[in-house]
Amino acid sequence: MADKTNNQSVVHTENDAVRALPSNVTFHNLIAKNKRKSVLLMLAMGLLVIVIGAVISSMLAIYATRGEAINLIPSAITGAVIASIIAIIACTWSFYGGANAILRIANAKEIEKKHDPQLFNVVEELSIAAGMPMPKVYLINDPAINAFATGRDPEHGAVAITTGLRQQLTRDELAGVMAHELSHIRHYDIRFAMLMATMVGLIVFACDAFWRIMWYGAIFGGGRRSSSRSKGGGILVIVLMVVAILLAIIAPTLAMVIRMAVSREREYLADAGAVELTRYPQGLIGALEKLGSCKHPLKGANRATSHLFIVNPLKNALKGKGHELSSVLRTHPPLHDRIARLKALIQ
Prior knowledge:
Layout: H1 2-11, H2 27-64, H3 72-105, E1 109-110, H4 117-130, E2 136-140, E3 147-150, E4 158-162, H5 163-168, H6 171-186, H7 189-215, H8 234-278, H9 281-293, H10 335-344
Parallel strand pairs: 2-4
Antiparallel strand pairs: 1-2, 3-4
Helix pairs in contact: 2-3, 2-7, 2-8, 3-7, 4-6, 6-8, 6-9, 7-8, 9-10
């Protein structure tokens, strides 16, 4: 007991190097903050989709009128509406079919309680604490230490862990990881992530289509040009073309940056949610330390699904200090930062 008290006093010392947040910040504060940030990022992604649709539609209108800058506002509105409709259709498809596809890609096999009673007991206890239905449990036959959750809502949730994780974590560490994954389901993170991934795909596809149109001369074809550009609408046409080109260059990268930012925020949120369920940050801290030391890439993972895992499972993320690096193009925040935030929540 004395050792525990001394350890807690060290944690609460003002000069403690691991304290990442003010002492009055709790997991409830982190959850609220990350939810606000995620909503803003989702709105930014939606706005980017609409802007791209409007710009491409305007460029096609200019081509159709042989360079005259006329009827651009109706064309822009039409493009924005069409882009929104396509996005809604694509997101609906992802919403209902994405989870099963992800489990197949990961080679995850559903198991029953008789196969691993302790694992099921942990998940059942945490589900009760979270006030949500018991998710389906899947096992991935792989020595890598990793886990992920999927499902569009708590009623259709599923958690998957590797055999490596199951063998190397203690019960408290396993509870920390499962609480993290259940938090993803509880906070509707999987639905959010699938929608974001769908919109990124649409943005990349739209920009690629724009470049193909340019390549074949549909917009800048010399035979289609008209002298009317120099009769009042030429400057506007040129400006719009420059904007369209810049947008086609920047938008895919910007979309990926937004998606990665969402993924990182959701990891922080799930970590905080795990503390809320277990009331024992040390369990997840120990698990993350073991996850960071694992150098086995997950065979069934790819770039499309890597953001779903508790740590990046890809080979290039395991090299050197891969888990500790910070970048706007990374799906996960640095492990040392996640661990520091968890230590800051120890009361």
